[in-house]
Every structure is written in C-alpha cells, then in structure tokens.
Amino acid sequence: QVQLVESGGGLVQPGGSLRLSCVASGSSFSINAMAWYRQAPGKQRELVARMPSDSITNYADSVKGRFTISRDNAKKTVYLQMNSLKPEDTAVYYCNVEAWVATWYQNYWGQGTQVTVSA
Question: From CA 85, how far away is CA 103, in angstroms rounded?
C-alpha cells in the first residue's frame, strides 16, 4: 500500500502564490507517474498537472504559465507551485500517484488540501 500526505493549502489573495507538497510512503513500491487534480464545489474533479516521468510535464490549459509541477524521486515527493492565483483556482487539490506494488499497477489518492483564493 501507498499513503499520500498533502500539505501547503490555505487562503491566499488573488495574485498570490502557494506551494503544495505531497509525500508518498509505504513499503515496496515504485512510483511511475505523479499528478495533481482539483475539484471545485459542484464540479467534477479535473487534472491540473501531471508528470509521467522526470522530463515530461502536462498542464491543464487554465493553469499553463502559472503553475509548475515538479518531483523529487529520492524524497518520493511531488510539488505544485501555484503563482498568480485566481478565484477560479479555488478547489480541493488532490495528489495522485501511479505506482507498481509487487506486480500490481495501482492508482493512489491523497486526502486533499483546500486552496481558497479570495480577497
């Protein structure tokens, strides 16, 4: 099993910045892709950014140029640097990890961290 713990959410004014972190722990697993999703009230969960490998990043059009995803494989951690935040970025942000556990390819989710952008 893999456990994911997110941190870094909070309340920020429009134009501000936040940095989210997500640490993976457990035993005998090998991480493949790492990603961030978000879900706003009354809306479906959507992909924000994803790193299928160390050198490839994918972003939702709505966050391109403002958000940056990165990962530290040694620390089994994925980050999301969010700049120029807008009220429409308000959502619960979820960490997602795809990992091999023994011979099984599994998809894991964090518990979510609230990001609120408001004056």
Answer: 40
Decide: helix, strand or coil at residue 75: coil
10-53 pLDDT, tens per residue?
999 999 999 999 999 998 889 999 999 999 999 999 999 999 98
The pair of structure tokens assigned to 99 is 């990992």
CA dihedral 36, 92, 23, 58 (to 10 degrees): 10
Q: Identify any residues that bridge with 3 across adjacent strands, giving them in sequence order.
A: 25
- Residue for token pair 């994911």: 4
80 and 72 Cβ atoms separated by less than 8 Å: no
At 54 the pLDDT is: 86
